[in-house]
Design brief:
Number of strands: 3
Number of domains: 1
Number of helices: 3
Shape: globular
Strand content: 25-35%
């Protein structure tokens, strides 16, 4: 399975001591681009949370969702 198509939990940050965002996706490359490009309305656009600081790969999406929670 390719890394960009594997379920994962990721953390974005707006900067040092800034706002954090934790999410789950099965395509980290696409999702990181969506956050950086601000194509989706929400917290990450409002607070400029664009810096990918952590990615944790999982074998299944339920495992990734459980870890996120």
């Amino acid at each position: 399975m390719a890394v960009d198509r594997q379920p994962c939990v990721y953390i974005l940050a707006s900067g040092r001591n800034g706002t954090l965002y934790i999410g789950v996706t099965n395509n980290i490359a696409r999702r990181a681009w969506e956050h950086r490009s601000e194509v989706v309305q929400g917290l990450t656009k409002r607070y400029a949370v664009h810096r990918l600081v952590y990615v944790e790969l999982h074998s299944t999406m339920p495992n990734a969702i459980l870890r996120e929670k």
